Structures are given as C-alpha cells and as structure tokens.
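step 3/5: co-fold with nicotinamide-adenine-dinucleotide
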Amino acid sequence: MRLKGKLVVITAAASGMGRAGCEIFAREGAKIAAVDIDQANLDDTVAAVKKAGGDIKGFKADLLKVDESKRVIADTSAWLGGIDILWAHAGCPGPAGIENMDLDAYNKTMDLNVRVSVVQASEVVQHMRKRGGGSIIFTASMGGLVGSMLMPVYSAAKFAVVGLTKSLAQTLAPDKIRVNALCPGLTDTPMLPQFMSRGGSVDEATKRYLVNVPLQRVGKSEEMAYGALFLASDEASYVTGVALPVDGGYTAK
Ligand SMILES: NC(=O)c1ccc[n+]([C@@H]2O[C@H](COP(=O)([O-])OP(=O)(O)OC[C@H]3O[C@@H](n4cnc5c(N)ncnc54)[C@H](O)[C@@H]3O)[C@@H](O)[C@H]2O)c1
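step 4/5: write tokens
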C-alpha cells in the first residue's frame, strides 16, 4: 500500500478527479477527509469508498467563503488526528475571451483557483509541521503551463497556482513539506463541457482540441488521481516544486 496510515485531505472530492482520488487513495491505505460544497454527491462518494472498505468522512464546505475554507482544515485535522497530505483540487473554469470582461466571473476564477489554494496552504502548514512534514498537491492545469486562447483568465489563475507551487516548495522545504502541482489536460468529468462550451459546440471544440493531443483522447479521472497519488506518496520523497503535466502530451508540442 502506497499511502498506508497517511492522513489525507482532498478538496472538490465529490465528483470527477477528486472522487477518483478518494477511491484510489483509500485503496492505498489512506484515511481521508473529503471536502466539497455538494452534500449529495459527497455522501455518494463517502458511501462508495466505505463500501469498498475505505476509511473516509465527508466535510461540507464552501471554499469560496474564507472562514469555511479555514475552518475545514481545522475540522479535518481534528478528525484525522493531523494532516500528512493535502490535495487542494478545487477550481473552476474562467470566462471566455478578454473583451467585455465579466468581473464577477473574473473574481470567482481567481478566488476559487488561487485564493483558496493560498488560504488552504496557509492553514495546513501548522498541521503538517506537527507531523514532521507533509505533501501539498495543488491542481493547476495544462493551462498553467501554456496559454489558453479561449480562457485567458483561467490560464492566468493556473499560472499563479504553478507560481505558488514553485515558491512554496522553497518556503516549506525546511519543514519537510513538499509542494507540487498536478496539471491535467482535458479530462472526462462534469467540468469538461464547461471548458469546451467556451469554444462553441462541445463536440466540435473537443475534436479541435484533440488534434493537438498526441495520445488522441481526453484523460480519465483515475489517470489524474494516479498522478496525484505519485506526488502524494513517499515514492516522490525527492520531488518538490514540480508542475506535472498529465495531458496526453498536449504540452509536449
Ligand atoms: N476536467 C478538466 O478537463 C480539467 C482540466 C484541467 C484542470 N482541471 C481542474 O480540476 C479541478 C476540477 O476537477 P474536476 O474536473 O474533477 O471537476 P468536477 O466538476 O468533476 O468536480 C468539481 C467539484 O468541485 C466542487 N466545488 C465547486 N465549487 C466549490 C466550492 N466553492 N467549495 C467546495 N467545493 C466546490 C463541486 O461541487 C464538484 O464536486 C479544477 O481545479 C479544474 O480547474 C480540470
């Protein structure tokens, strides 16, 4: 087991990659605090993991509310008995284009992708320090490695997440806290149509996107969760400050 006895917080855990992360991390022996705003899907995730023999509890929180975002780190740490690993996976797509910018959409994109990452990292350090170290994984995106023609604000936000990752890798190294980013390519989750609808029809936009993907398909949630699993595990004990693309080769071009 690759995470035996590890105390793990996963955010945006009720759906897509976060849910796959709960299932896979639990199979690898982790005790998991699963955080999401969506109580019904969170309950489903928790039930599925428990049915498979996993140790998990759901924590409902709206991470856009700073007090809830902070409180949930304290609450999950209290239930887990500390925190070894935080997969800060919450994020959202941004507005299309640049003209006539909707500033509410801009603020939400920056807040959920960047501010939440900053707040949660800020809160979790004390808990990891008590455990003698830890691993933080932020979910960035391939849009945090190369610019996005369709969603410049999203790309700006994810570049900020990658910058935060590389900076905190240095800041937190003395505390033996590793900090890395997972950079998914387009992945088959409920969020996929939200990305692709920025480019007109979802099917057409996905076809256009795949022209630039050497592996010629979108990713699966489990493939992203396995990337996060590697970064979380002791197998990555000498890996910090990395932005790992799991994108079928999109950013190789
Ligand atoms: N799906 C993709 O193609 C793709 C590609 C690159 C990066 N990403 C990144 O992956 C993450 C999303 O992952 P997904 O595709 O698994 O999405 P998803 O839509 O399957 O799940 C997102 C989850 O986030 C939760 N959530 C939304 N707002 C929240 C809030 N304020 N507080 C707490 N929880 C909240 C939702 O309830 C949902 O369960 C984001 O960071 C996104 O930027 C996704």
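step 5/5: annotate
The pocket of nicotinamide-adenine-dinucleotide is lined by residues 12, 14-18, 36-38, 41, 61-64, 89-91, 112, 139, 141, 184, 186-187, 189-192, 195 (CB under 6 Å).
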